[in-house]
Q: What sequence folds into this?
């Protein structure tokens, strides 16, 4: 392969990766347009080990008392609301990038009976540990 071809390929790959990152960000923080329905979906990481799943869901600014987690069969549903922070009197919003409002995230789990053994909200992330029964 010629040197010029390698440079072109690398540039094309970099552009592709940037486009993919942008698509993933839009997908993770997708806003819904209908009132009363979930407005955004938080990003999720899932790790699978011997008979257990560790699920981490990014929930910046979500109060634990506003969080609902439901494990039903092979589906996990996380619902909550991230309220818009109170503004100081006379303060204008300059930028608002972290989603707020009602959200719902539905995850289909691998087949099998699961039990939630740990549910903890740590540093803005909901950490769930599910073990196979």
A:
């Amino acid at each position: 392969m010629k040197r010029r071809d390698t440079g072109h390929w690398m540039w094309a790959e970099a552009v592709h990766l940037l486009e993919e990152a942008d698509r993933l960000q839009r997908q993770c923080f997708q806003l819904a347009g209908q009132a009363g329905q979930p407005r955004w979906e938080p990003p999720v990481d899932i790790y699978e080990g011997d008979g257990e799943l560790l699920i981490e869901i990014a929930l910046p600014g979500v109060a634990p008392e506003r969080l609902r987690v439901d494990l039903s069969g092979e589906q996990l549903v996380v619902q909550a609301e991230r309220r818009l922070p109170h503004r100081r009197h006379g303060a204008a919003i300059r930028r608002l990038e972290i989603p707020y409002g009602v959200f719902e995230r539905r995850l289909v789990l691998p087949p099998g009976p699961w039990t939630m053994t740990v549910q903890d909200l740590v540093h803005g992330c909901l950490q769930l540990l599910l073990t196979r029964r």
Summary: Residues 80 and 126 are 11 Å apart (CA to CA). The beta strands are 44-49, 52-58, 67-72, 75-82, 101-108, 114-122, 125-132.
